[in-house]
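#lab-general

N.A. 3:47 PM
ok so I finally got the sequence cleaned up, no stray characters, all 101 residues accounted for. can someone with queue access submit it? mine expired

B.Y. 3:52 PM
send it over

N.A. 3:53 PM
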Amino acid sequence: MRVPTAATTAGSLIGGWQLARRTGNRPLGGVVLAAGGVLAGREWARRTSPAVTAALVVTYVGAFGLSHPLARRIGSWPSVLAVSALTAAASYALADRRSPR
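B.Y. 4:20 PM
back already:
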């Protein structure tokens, strides 16, 4: 079964942030973030080359890191939505719209 990695990455970034925010338990949000990364990473590895997989992993982890300083400038919701959209777009363009190899 094909897992849509665009939805997985965006959902785990948004869901992990919301869970951490609402519960006050940041590690719990990190579990959601990590689970989404593992699920997406497995699909990227199956569908694409190692170089594309590595680029998408860096994009996903970088989005998480970028969301923190960006939130100070534009606010939490806009920041998380922006990095989630960018990550989802990259996932779709490089992995989801391509047929499995």
